[in-house]
Write a structure and sequence with these properties.
- Strand 6, helix 7 (about 155-165) and strand 7 (about 170-175) form a beta-alpha-beta unit.
- About 30% of the residues are buried.
- The protein is globular and about 50 Å long.
- A seven-stranded parallel β-sheet has the order 3-2-1-4-5-6-7, with helices on both faces.
- It starts with a strand and ends in a 22-residue tail after the last strand.
- The protein is α/β, with parallel strands linked by helices and about 200 residues long.
- It is about 35% helix and about 20% strand.
Length: about 200
């Protein structure tokens, strides 16, 4: 099986979503072993590529990272135009997992994505207009086209079902797992003030 995973979200400083994506990919590659091929795919800016490479360091997977000027605009336009299919660039695939950042069409295979939360929908005043627009478009496309929607909590899966109408049989929960660096042992951080 060939699994193509959009890693565009790793092109910015890693926080919760970026750490979740990296951990998910590492676990997927480990579970896939030699039996399945996992490909990290993304159209990226020149500034974003080193961040993606650093995030993927140590994960033995194929990389199909393409530098484009104005990468964000390309990803958004590709999603809006609904052409060409992702296979034109990523090759034949059995699964395409897209991010919040783009949802290009595909010819075949399982279409999947992850929903981390519905904050842009539930609390639009907490988010930037660009974030609301980007997520709203993804949510509409996801509800209509995905055969599998992964959520990082049961609560989020319930909201995706309730607010977006995604049938429960298409939802799966994959809880985040901390990387080994996040453990009770180790050095105590000195934060120079109350935290």
């Amino acid at each position: 099986m060939r699994i193509v995973w959009d890693v565009s979200s790793l092109s910015h400083a890693r926080t919760g979503v970026g750490n979740y994506v990296r951990g998910t990919l590492a676990g997927l590659v480990e579970a896939a072993g030699a039996e399945h091929e996992v490909v990290a795919f993304a159209p990226l800016s020149k500034r974003g590529r080193p961040l993606v490479e650093a995030a993927l360091a140590g994960i033995p997977l194929e990389r199909d990272l393409r530098e484009l000027p104005f990468a964000h605009a390309w990803r958004q336009t590709w999603s809006r135009l609904k052409w060409p299919p992702v296979e034109r660039f990523a090759g034949a695939l059995d699964v395409f997992h897209f991010s919040d950042w783009m949802f290009p069409p595909q010819r075949g295979g399982l279409r999947a994505t992850t929903v981390h939360d519905l904050v842009p929908l539930r609390f639009p005043e907490w988010t930037h207009r660009r974030t609301r627009r980007m997520h709203a478009a993804k949510y509409r496309n996801m509800a209509r086209t995905c055969g599998l929607v992964v959520c990082n909590s049961r609560f989020t899966a319930g909201e995706v079902h309730e607010l977006l109408g995604v049938p429960e049989e298409r939802l799966r929960v994959a809880h985040p797992a901390p990387e080994p660096v996040f453990s009770p042992g180790g050095d105590v951080a000195r934060l120079d003030g109350p935290y």
